[in-house]
Amino acid sequence: MNIDDLSWQAHNLGGVHPRMAQTLLDLGQVELLARAAQERGDWNCAKAAALELGAAGEFERALALLDPFTDIGWRAAEWVTAEIMIRQGEADEALAMVRPDVAELDDAHVCVRYAELSAKAGRIDEAIEVLTPHLGASWPLSCLVEATEGQGADDQVLDVLAQAAERAETEPTGSLERWQVLLLTARVLERAGRTDEAVQTLRTEAAAGRHHPVNFPEYQAELLARQGLIEELASLAADQPYAAFDAYAKALEDAGRAPEAEALLRERIEAHDLSNDRAALMDLLVRQGRIDEAVETGRPTFDYYDCGNLLHRTLDLLVDDGRPDRALELVEGLTGPYAEGHPDDVLQLRLRLLGEAGRCPQGIAEATALNERQPGAWDTSLARLLELDGRLEEAVALLRASTHYRATLDLADMLLRNGRPAEALAAIPTIAEERAAAERRVRWQNPSGESRVTPPTAAATLAP
Q: Of the four listed, 91, 247, 340, 359, which is most buried by Cβ atoms within 10 Å?
């Protein structure tokens, strides 16, 4: 391993993706991850395994796993090492190891990470001190609020927030706005049990008549709902319907007034026909077991070209309800802008649903025909159908040979589903292999910077 490869991995999600590492942890495969960290030099494997071992009290093993990465100066490994040492009871040594130097004190990201560790060690004063120069922006301030939750330091944090609010008021051209501070203040007051003050903070700001982006009334609505202030929430929904109406409807349902919530949603859909209201009504109907009505609620959006289209949500409802054939009927009946503009997506949906409906031979025949016209383009869909048809080894062989950009990830997922975690991990190219493949693709670029038409390799950067 070397710093360049690890940096490439961090920026390109190369090697073993964090999601896959977490899946392996969920399957109890910490030893497999530890071995991959040692043999492949994969940082994501090392981090996941070390944190899991540390949580289990195996501190020495966890730290030993990180040593090769810290030895070459990989900063991320130093942070994880410090986190494990804090858990081990060695906070002084841990914080001394990662304390920002003079140059790093100007780096908000470094200071936020150090503040998070300081808070975990119970050093709230130190966390506040290192973040103070950066509290003119909302992100470090939000990180301070998150890092101090459950640390018994709410009064200290509220003092910092009060100072930040004053600064935002007197320096309106800065990057921190008053409403951002007040949302954080309400959050800290609520978690401190001072809910009346939290509500009043936002109530007063809203009454001042200042302009706020949509997330301010959204948070206010959620706070009112959590506190059961339904009548006040109704007023807010009337004034800010786009931001607060769905929260109001859900609060009515939670209060045992589901028919009233449904009626209001239907009235609003009739008047404005917004997708988010249809989605809220669908969710309400599903919670009541009224799946067919939920489907009909989503159906008018199926022609939407992109934003607001509830097709996928509707199909998932039917599959989860054990009716993939009905979902397939909907796909086969698609017309309009979405179907015309996304023909490959519609075909992929059809193939997926044929598999869900147990019609794998038909799906395999269709996917094979598509692959003959577009070699390799339908490998992942075909492999999934082969797997569902009980032809696992054929599916695995297909993905191993495929150049489709998702083949490597889909192969790993398939092997994991079928209880073959070691093979799944081995299917992922090493960081060095992926990096070399990426560099080869760059060399294929022509002088204008446009890539030549060439199929992506199986070692293509993995999607999240």
A: 247
* Exposure class string for 372-391: b at 16+ Cβ within 10 A, else e: eeeebbbbbbbbbbbbbbeb
| Residue 14 burial (C-beta neighbours within 10 Å; 0-12, 13-18, 19+) | buried
Residue 452, SS3?
coil
55-73 residue pLDDT tens: 999 999 999 999 999 999 9
Q: What is the pLDDT of residues 288-333, one digit of tens each?
A: 999 999 999 999 999 999 889 999 999 999 999 999 999 999 999 9
| Alpha-carbon span 327 to 277, nearest angstrom | 22
Q: Which residues contact 173 (CB under 8 A, 6 or more apart)?
A: none
Sign of the CA dihedral 130, 132, 136, 141? positive
Q: What is the mean pLDDT of the chain?
A: 93
Q: Which amino acid, residue 122?
A: G
Phi-psi region for residue 119, left (φ > 0), alpha (ψ -120 to 50) or beta? alpha
d(CA 48, CA 18): 8
| 185 contacts 197 by C-beta, under 8 angstroms | no
Q: Of how many residues is the chain composed?
A: 464
User: Strand, helix or coil at 151?
Assistant: coil
The total of other beta-carbon atoms located within 10 Å of residue 76's CB is 17
DSSP letter at 337 equals: H
| CA-to-CA separations, 197 to 149, 193, 240, 264, 323, in angstroms, rounded | 18, 9, 22, 30, 49
The span from the first CA to the last CA of the chain, in angstroms, equals 23
State pLDDT tens for residues 119-150.
999 999 999 999 999 998 999 999 999 999 99
Q: What is the C-alpha radius of gyration for the chain, rounded to an integer number of angstroms?
A: 27
pTM, 2 dp = 0.87
Q: What is the pLDDT of residue 314?
A: 98
Q: Dmax over Cα atoms in the chain, in whole Å?
A: 70
Residue 188: which residues within 8 A CB-CB, separation 6 or more? 145, 154, 157, 158, 161
The neighbour count for residue 72, using CB atoms within 10 Å, is 12
Q: Can you list the pairs that 447-456 forms with residues at least 24 positions away whose Cβ atoms lie under 8 Å?
A: 455/376, 455/403, 456/403, 456/404, 456/405
Nearest in space to 311 (alpha carbons), one of 365, 271, 352: 352
Q: Given its phi and psi angles, is residue 149 left (phi above 0), alpha (psi -120 to 50 degrees) or beta?
A: beta
Q: What is the pLDDT of residues 21-47, one digit of tens each?
A: 999 999 999 999 999 999 999 999 999
Structural contact between residues 297 and 285, judged by C-beta atoms closer than 8 angstroms: yes
